[in-house]
Structure formats: structure tokens, C-alpha cells
Write a structure and sequence with these properties.
The protein contains eleven helices and eleven strands. The chain is α/β, with parallel strands linked by helices and 289 residues long. The protein starts with a strand and ends with a helix. Bound molecules: NADPH dihydro-nicotinamide-adenine-dinucleotide phosphate.
Length: 289
């Protein structure tokens, strides 16, 4: 039997609606809308599309939004000064620096991300937020893995007690996903490029998360019958064609539920960001009372 298709647009609409209701309640209670500032350095076309989508979503949901476009040759000190300014700006509750950064400052990405006030770090990349996530405290959490967990819950897919396998151990997806799944009481294995017999490990999973950036790497023989397969990968395989990390057509015949690419996890990321902005705003405004 063919798998249930977990359509990103359905869950994204639900998450955005939540954010819209909460943004309106914040405006009503505190007299200010939640505010997001996105800094983009240089002219990376993919980054420009992502930033436009974030700005548009804010406008739709009643979230104040500023896009700060800095030239390609921006020096580290100029970028840090801009972050300091936004850290002190009362209209702004969430700050994100769109990655990747141009090459002259890419090596300083950690220092730049650490300059953001952790309370405004809506990407959840600041070590203080990472530490809180690892120790099970309330934290701003990276949007893509958080969106996946929210999707599983909304779809009624049980996580508690399940075997979960994540392929990929990046700071943006794999590692936060490990902690989020563990928090939901899954038993989690994380695979990476040194994992031996990855196919056999993947096949043990009730919930299999592919986040490696290798088109169609996960094949039907690596998936347990009835498993939930979450495909985080976004790979451009032709000028106008995207593929995930999962061989969707074959795996959907084995899996119980599966996210497509495009049209799956990618749509959850911005919707979850909107929820992070609202969460950050609420905490900051509550603290100012
Ligand atoms: P990274 O390149 O940072 O990490 C990839 C991970 O996959 C690494 O841990 C790497 O292992 C592992 N890996 C690579 N090749 C193999 C292999 N052959 N076998 C086992 N493990 C392997 O990628 P990201 O986490 O940033 O992104 C992963 C994918 O998700 C990409 O396609 C990206 O475009 C997409 N993405 C999608 C988002 C969305 O909104 N849907 C958001 C973020 C990312 P090792 O550590 O050993 O090198």
C-alpha cells in the first residue's frame, strides 16, 4: 500500500495560523507587534529568495519585518555593529543573519552568530540556546528540525518509545533533531559519513530522517515497512528540478508516511520561524513588564 503523503503546505498553514493568532494577541496585550530583522550580506540568489519569503510571511501574519541588505564586501566589524544596533532595537524581537556569508567573513560565522542576543536568536544557533536544548530547557530551537517534530505531532504520528534514525549530524538539522526526538522519548541513532552498514541501521527506524544533501540516497531497501520517512534534503538535480535525499517514488511504496520534495519539510521552515519570532517576542515583552 502506498504511504500517507505528509504535505508541507497543510502543516505550514496550520503553524502560520498559530503564529498569526499569537501575534495579534501580543499586539493587543503589549501594543507592539512581534518584529523580525533579517540581515542579508551580498547577492546570493537563493538567499534572496529565502529572505523575500520570510518578509512576505511576516507581512501576512502581522509581524513587523525589516530586511537589512548589506553589500558583498561588508567587513566583519560593520556586520557586528549592525547586530549590536538590532540587539538594542525595541521593535525587533528576532534577528537572523542569512547564511551562507560571503567568503571574507564566512570563517567568522560563529563569532557573528554569537553576537546576536540569545533572546533574539530566532534561528536557535547561539551556543546558549544550543546548551538549553541539550539540557532540556525551553529554548529558541532551529526551525527545520522543530518544524518536523511539530509536523509529526500534528499528523498524530507517535514518537514516544519509537526507534528514530537520523542520517546527518549538522548543527542546523541533525544534532538539534537528535535532542528534539530524545525529548519526545524516542530512542535515537545518528548516522554520518563514517557510519558502517548505514542501510541496516536505517532499516531499524520507525522514524527515519534524511538530512545529508545526497539526492535519492535513501532507497526502498533501507526502509522498514510502515516507517515514517522525513526527507529534509533539498538538492538541485537540474536547473528547474529539485530532489530530496530519499528516492520518493520507490520509498513511498514501503513507508507508512513520507514527506515529498519539493512540497514537504522545506515549507515548514519559514512557518516555524514565524512561531519562533512570536515566542521570542512574548518572552521579551513579558520580561519588560
Ligand atoms: P551538511 O552538509 O551540513 O551535513 C550533511 C550531513 O550528512 C553530515 O553530517 C554528513 O556526515 C552527512 N553525510 C553526507 N554524506 C553522507 C553519506 N554518504 N552517508 C552518511 N552520512 C552522510 O548539511 P545540512 O544538515 O545543512 O543539510 C542537509 C540537507 O538538508 C541539504 O540537502 C540541505 O539543502 C537540506 N536542508 C533543508 C532545509 C529545509 O528547510 N528543508 C534546511 C536546512 C538544510 P559528516 O558529518 O560525517 O560529514
Amino acid at each position: 500500500m502506498s504511504a500517507r503523503i505528509l504535505e508541507g503546505k497543510v502543516f505550514a498553514a496550520e503553524f502560520k495560523n498559530d503564529a498569526k493568532i499569537k501575534a495579534a494577541a501580543i499586539k493587543e496585550k503589549y501594543g507592539v507587534a512581534p518584529g523580525l530583522a533579517v540581515i542579508i550580506v551580498g547577492n546570493n540568489p537563493a538567499s534572496e529568495v529565502y529572505v523575500r519569503n520570510k518578509h512576505k510571511s511576516c507581512e501576512e501574519l502581522g509581524i513587523y519585518s525589516e530586511v537589512i541588505a548589506l553589500p558583498e564586501e561588508t567587513a566583519k566589524e560593520e556586520l557586528l555593529a549592525k547586530i549590536d544596533e538590532l540587539n538594542n532595537d525595541k521593535k525587533i524581537h528576532g534577528i537572523l543573519v542569512q547564511l551562507p556569508l560571503p567568503k571574507q567573513i564566512a570563517a567568522c560565522s560563529d563569532e557573528i552568530l554569537e553576537r546576536i542576543n540569545p533572546a533574539k536568536d530566532v534561528d536557535g544557533f547561539h551556543p546558549q540556546n544550543v546548551g538549553k536544548l541539550v539540557t532540556g530547557q525551553d529554548a529558541l530551537t532551529p526551525c527545520t528540525p522543530l518544524g518536523c517534530i511539530r509536523m509529526l505531532k500534528s499528523a498524530g504520528i507517535e514518537i514516544d518509545g519509537k526507534r528514530a534514525v537520523i542520517i546527518g549530524r549538522s548543527n542546523i538539522v541533525g544534532k538539534p533533531m537528535l535532542h528534539l526526538l530524545m525529548k519526545e522519548n524516542a530512542t535515537v541513532t545518528v548516522c554520518h559519513s563514517h557510519t558502517k552498514d548505514l542501510a541496516a541501521v536505517a532499516k531499524e527506524a520507525d522514524i527515519l530522517v534524511a538530512a545529508m544533501g545526497k539526492p535519492k540516497f535513501v532507497t526502498a531497501d533501507m526502509v522498514k515497512e510502515g516507517a515514517t520517512v522525513i526527507d529534509v534534503g533539498i538538492n538541485r538535480i537540474a536547473p528547474k528540478k529539485l530532489a530530496g535525499d530519499v528516492d520518493f517514488e520507490a520509498v513511498k511504496e514501503v513507508a507508512g508516511a513520507i514527506t515529498p520534495v519539493p512540497g514537504g519539510v522545506g515549507l515548514l521552515t519559514v512557518a516555524t520561524l514565524m512561531n519562533n519570532v512570536v515566542f521570542a517576542a512574548e518572552k521579551q515583552l513579558e520580561g519588560e513588564k
